[in-house]
Write a structure and sequence with these properties.
Blueprint lengths: L16 E9 L7 H8 L5 E5 L8 E5 L2 H8 L3 E5 L2 E9 L18
Antiparallel strand pairs: 1-3, 1-5, 2-3, 4-5
Length: about 110
């Protein structure tokens, strides 16, 4: 039996976008959750602001309205604090995160 045939391709392309959710990168360490909330709530009501621990300079911002998130994402640079721009993109579902099912570890019989 052929393993997982079909549905290939489009890796990194057809990843489902998480509606209303933004992914922030290149964030200055001085930026806090309060700073993000204050800045991004001017574009619409937020349901989530999350800065993962570990100082990776990333964060997630969630809007109640996907339209608000789309509008914010039209502009990739946002100056949350003076002199501290962050890069904003739409958050996408990470395939196989934590499941370990996908990836090159699995051998493929020829």
């Amino acid at each position: 039996s052929f393993w997982g045939g079909g549905g290939g391709g489009g890796y990194g392309q057809n990843q489902p976008i998480m509606p209303g959710r933004l992914f922030l990168t290149k964030m200055a360490p001085s930026i806090t959750k309060d700073d993000l909330t204050t800045y991004f709530q001017q574009f619409g009501s937020l349901n989530d602001v999350y800065i993962p621990p570990g100082g990776k300079s990333i964060a997630f911002v969630g809007y109640d309205s996907p339209e608000a998130a789309n509008a914010v994402a039209q502009q990739t640079q946002h100056e949350v604090l003076p002199g501290c721009p962050v890069t904003v993109t739409m958050a996408v579902e990470r395939p196989g995160k934590g499941g370990g099912g996908k990836g090159p570890m699995r051998y493929s019989p020829y």
